[in-house]
Amino acid sequence: xxxxxxxxxxxxxxxxxxxxxxxxxxxxxxxxxxxxxxxxxxxxxxxxxxxxxxxxxxxxxxxxxxxxxxxxxxxxxxxxxxxxxxxxxxxxxxxxxxxxxxxxxxxxxxxxxxxxxxxxxxxxxxxxxxxxxxxxxxxxxxxxxxxxxxxxxxxxxxxxxxxxxxxxxxxxxxxxxxxxxxxxxxxxxxxxxxxxxxxxxxxxxxxxxxxxxxxxxxxxxxxxxxxxxxxxxxxxxxxxxxxxxxxxxxxxxxxxxxxxxxxxxxxxxxxxxxxxxxxxxxxxxxxxxxxxxxxxxxxxxxxxxxxxxxxxxxxxxxxxxxxxxxxxxxxxxxxxxxxxxxxxxxxxxxxxxxxxxxxxxxxxxxxxxxxxxxxxxxxxxxxxxxxxxxxxx
Length: 393
Prior knowledge:
Number of strands: 6
Radius of gyration: 34 Å
């Protein structure tokens, strides 16, 4: 039989032999492609490989592309001209933000009488009229006349049973507790102090002065400190950095300064006293040592880390300042202008709605990706990674 097979092979046309070899090569190529796809899927499921790949991509971020290097010298020369135009654009943008700051200062003066009246109502210095208290409810909240009358009688009965509160008690404390960014800073020992917070004001730098803004926290007399106002000032820069002009993206906070709090003796919540036992190495005697150490408190907000002249900070200080800048900006931009909506929780619901919309968009994108995978002729569900929430048995 072997002789016959060899004879048949010898008698085969050379062209037929080439066809056989090509088919075998194609089959081998398909196997290799399938193995390569499976290997790629396995590699992409390995967290260490993904981390290394991400680190490599991060290292490439911002580096010049090979395309730029390959351009003729005369084209590179023209690209440099475009960069010079971009620098001029950055300087014009800086002027734009300076004028925006001037507008903020102008309109802050228009807002302030309204904020002052808000403060007077909160601290019971002014009682609003019936007309000022009229508020049109949403359609779904509208009640029948009978229900309104019943609700009014119940409210009057409650008012008779308890002492009439003055103003709006714990207004700012409630605002702080309703906002995650601020509530994370609050400690239980801060709350009795913040019950005395009557107002927060934003003050902008004077015309012609370097760009800055201050937050003023106004307190009524209390047993904790003698200050009536605690201040925090943020200095900003609105000009491109000469060493990196293309990084300019509007005003940025450069540093901030707090104030000295004149604490009543024994009331400083930013410090705590701890006792430690120490054993003498030689004699073996034990003694108790009392130490005063920093304590977590919202009022540490008024003693931020100092930025050295070199501008270099350790990682911890950088993280603290970054969070500080975010909080200061949020209080200025959101809390002070919309305080009543954070008190009622309506502004928080609006923020949540924004996040939900982003989530829906993300879901839509995932759906599109899944559809693209299903339409791919090379897509094999067996090769796909399992969902993150699933565990393989």
